[in-house]
Design goal:
It is a single chain. 42% of the residues lie in helices and 23% in strands. By secondary structure, the protein is an alpha+beta fold. It has a three-stranded antiparallel sheet with strand order 1-2-3. Strand 1 and strand 2 form a beta hairpin. The protein is globular and about 35 Å long.
């Protein structure tokens, strides 16, 4: 836990300085992808009906982009 917290602290400081929501989400997705070493990170904005829009994404180049897509609540 301490090691993970130390890894997150610089990311949190960087995110605190970003005032634009989409830029903040994009930066967070990119940093989390790099930190976790996974193929894709998506950030959703959930709607009142439970559906979600992909508003930021960090992915490997070989993967299709889901940015801008909306997924139903189910």
């Amino acid at each position: 836990p301490d090691r993970q917290l130390r890894q997150l602290q610089p990311i949190i400081r960087q995110l605190e300085a970003i005032r634009d929501l989409k830029a903040l989400c994009q930066h967070a997705a990119e940093r989390l992808k790099a930190m976790l070493g996974i193929d894709r990170v998506m950030v959703y904005r959930f709607q009142a009906d439970g559906s979600g829009d992909v508003i930021a994404e960090a992915r490997e180049d070989r993967l299709e982009s889901f940015l801008g897509l909306r997924y139903p609540h189910t």
